[in-house]
Design brief:
heterodimer; A: 162 residues; Glutaredoxin; 2 domains; 5-stranded mixed sheet; 7 helices; 5 strands; 12% strand; elongated; B: Rossmann fold; Ubiquitin-like (UB roll); de novo design (two linked rop proteins); 3 domains; 4-stranded parallel sheet; 41% helix; globular; binds flavin mononucleotide; binds iron/sulfur cluster; binds FE2/S2 (inorganic) cluster
């Protein structure tokens, strides 16, 4: 596994800050995932090694936390909040619109690897529902008009992801 | 708006010229309280917080000063402070505002609290989805460090304490304080059993630990600023300070609004502050304190006695927005997430939506929760897809009754309360749906219809 030098530097700065090395497990998963896109068996072993843990100690957190991935996502990761406040404001309809536009069922990646479409639970911005995240960028009030706009931007590669 | 907000925590947050950098914060008098606090004795600060009567804003409403008092100081182990910024209770979005718009207020509140309890190290556990909030906090902490407001020998006081921002990764259960601690130790967020694992005695790394919500820690700053007595005069006895109510769902102006406790009623919040319901709609129900609090039905009468013995007889609009009144009507103010539903809402679907959430979020440690919550989801899902059975409403109640009170953490209650309250209060709708679908199935007719909430 080849991690970027900037990632390695971040890891070296981070680990000694914790009173117990194991606490750095989740942050390291984040950093390696940001670097590599997702977590492989190799990365799990690498992290375990770095923290003097067993691979199972990392594998068990990778399988627990929804934001950690073991498969490559599509180019754009689209996460639609489906929890009550967003649903009351039409989130399911918004999601359907994304499904139709990319011919991609929620919970999967489109055949052309352009989008991974997922449901997520409440993103703590319910006053501006429906909420959709694309990459690390949050979009709010995503009604059908806004969704159509975002779909267009994803298709032509101009959508902002952070 | 005829009812004016009275902001304390979010006083500057939305002023057009207010920015979230340290220069702006200091220009507005920021960090003066920290300077004052480090001149005081730590135990005197703890006493101020206790005397103020401030209650936790994370959900349970436990008095913060009392929690601090429970710290096991005899063990001689290091003490830790954790700010709970997981903000994961559906319907809640107040901590996000503080983190994004006024991060230094949180840092100041934390450093005062850390000094008061003599914490060796402090953490902010922030939910993983707050990418921007994380960056803002990291930057703010660096700014504060460069001015010696945290880190080594803070402002020459001899006291040292750093803050580590630790990101979660999408699991709701990390908001539960002992689950949070496990997560911070690098493990699955499986909550610990209390007793013996009360964080104040056996918390992070089995050391005494205080976990407080973002808003609670900001309140500490204001308690030091105005003194316990003045702070305790905001609101009513037992319900002091302000609360940030997060309103979402079917209102004209959803958003966050800060008021002294008990300063407004639920009716004023809906109709005056939030501009009322959508045109032509009537109020059907309100979830007043995040999705795990018990639902209130719009045409209910709430009768009973308050703690001080006063009798009340309220309609839904008359309920004062504070801890004790919402508890007295059988629900709770919880995390301040007020979800409004109008008469277009199908209650079975709304519960199906909530059950989906809890089934997804159970950590899986206790059998009643791991098995029971998905059962409840399965039942409400089939009720929405045309496969309801006549016994379903009662079965939902039976399952919920067997989860609540039989689990390691309060998630068991959080998942059961919606089911118990929805089904008992809207029994007519649940039964009608079950009957109708049974009948149609018998006649060989199409039973499912389009759903919007699940
Ligand atoms: C299932 C569950 C989820 C919770 N989620 C949160 C949360 O997201 N944020 C929070 O501050 N408290 C949450 N809490 C409450 C915490 O366990 C804890 O009581 C709180 O952080 C204490 O802070 P306070 O005393 O300042 O309110 C949750 C509790 C439970 C049982
Ligand atoms: S009640 Fe549920 S969430 Fe809490 S410890 Fe048990 S299984 Fe986990
Ligand atoms: S329900 Fe979607 S952000 Fe809260």
């Amino acid at each position: 596994m080849d991690l970027k030098q900037t990632t390695l530097d971040k890891i070296d700065r981070l680990v000694p800050r914790y009173p117990d090395k194991r606490s750095a497990a989740l942050p390291l998963c984040h950093l390696v995932q940001e670097d590599q896109g997702y977590l492989t068996n190799d990365s799990i072993e690498w992290i375990a090694n770095r923290l003097d843990l067993e691979p199972i100690n990392i594998a068990e957190i990778v399988t627990f936390y929804p934001m950690l991935r073991t498969e490559a996502p599509g180019k754009y990761q689209v996460r639609v909040c489906r929890t009550l406040s967003c649903a009351l404001s039409g989130a399911y309809k918004t999601c359907k619109q994304f499904e139709d536009a990319f011919d991609c069922k929620v919970g999967s990646t489109s055949d052309d690897q352009l989008v991974t479409l997922e449901y997520v639970e409440c993103h703590a911005d319910c006053g501006r529902a429906p909420v959709v995240m694309i990459g690390e960028k949050e979009y709010t009030g995503v009604d059908s008009e806004k969704a159509a706009d975002l779909i267009e931007q994803i298709k032509n590669g101009t959508v902002e992801t952070e | 708006m005829s009812v004016e907000e009275q902001r304390l925590i979010l006083k500057y947050a939305d002023e057009p010229s207010y920015t979230n950098d340290i220069a702006c914060y200091i220009k507005h008098g920021g960090y003066e309280e920290l300077k004052k606090a480090i001149q005081l004795k730590p135990e005197d600060i703890c006493k101020e917080v206790l005397d103020s009567g401030v209650r936790g804003r994370g959900g349970a409403g436990f008095p913060a000063g009392m929690k601090w008092k429970f710290l096991d100081r005899k063990s001689g182990k290091p003490i830790y402070l954790i700010c709970n910024a997981d903000e994961s209770e559906p319907g809640t979005f107040k901590d996000r505002q503080i983190i994004h718009k006024d991060p230094h207020q949180l840092i100041e509140g934390m450093m005062i609290s850390a000094f008061a309890i003599q914490a060796k190290l402090a953490f902010i556990y922030i939910r993983g989805e707050f990418f921007e909030g994380y960056k803002i906090l990291e930057r703010a902490i660096e700014e504060a460090r460069s001015k010696n407001l945290l880190g080594d020998n803070i402002l020459g006081s001899g006291y040292s304490c750093d803050i580590i921002v630790h990101r979660g990764a999408g699991a709701y259960i990390c908001g539960e304080e002992t689950g949070l601690i496990e997560s911070l130790e690098g493990k699955r967020a499986n909550p610990r059993i209390k007793p013996p694992y009360f964080p104040a005695a056996l918390g992070l790394y089995q050391c005494p630990t205080i976990v407080n919500n973002v808003e609670t820690l900001c309140d500490v700053k204001h308690i030091i600023a105005m003194g316990a007595k003045a702070f305790s005069e905001i609101g009513t006895p037992g319900n002091v300070g302000t609360r940030i109510w997060c309103v979402s769902g079917h209102v004209q102006k959803p958003g966050y609004y800060e008021f002294p406790c008990a300063a407004i009623t639920l009716g004023e919040l809906i109709y005056e502050v939030c501009g009322g319901l959508l045109p032509g709609r009537k109020l059907k129900a309100v979830i007043p304190g995040g999705s795990s609090s018990k639902i209130l039905r719009a045409d209910e009468r709430f009768k009973g006695k308050l703690k001080d013995g006063t009798e009340f007889d309220w309609g839904i609009e008359d309920i004062p927005m504070d801890f004790d009144s919402l508890a007295a009507v059988g629900s709770m103010s919880g995390s301040g997430g007020v979800i409004i539903m109008d008469d277009s809402t199908d209650m079975v679907e709304a519960l199906a939506n909530i059950n989906y959430f809890y089934a997804h979020e159970s950590c899986g440690q206790c059998t009643p929760c791991r098995e029971g919550v998905p059962w409840m989801k399965k039942i409400t899902t089939r009720m929405c897809s045309g496969n309801a059975r006549e016994e379903d409403p009662q079965m939902l109640i039976n399952i919920a009754d067997q989860i609540a009170g039989r689990t390691i953490c309060a998630f068991g209650e959080a998942a059961s309360w919606p089911v118990q309250s929805f089904v008992s209060k809207f029994r007519d709708e649940f039964e009608a749906k079950a009957k109708e679908q049974e009948l149609l199935r018998k006649q060989g007719l199409e039973t499912s219809k389009e759903t919007t909430l699940i």
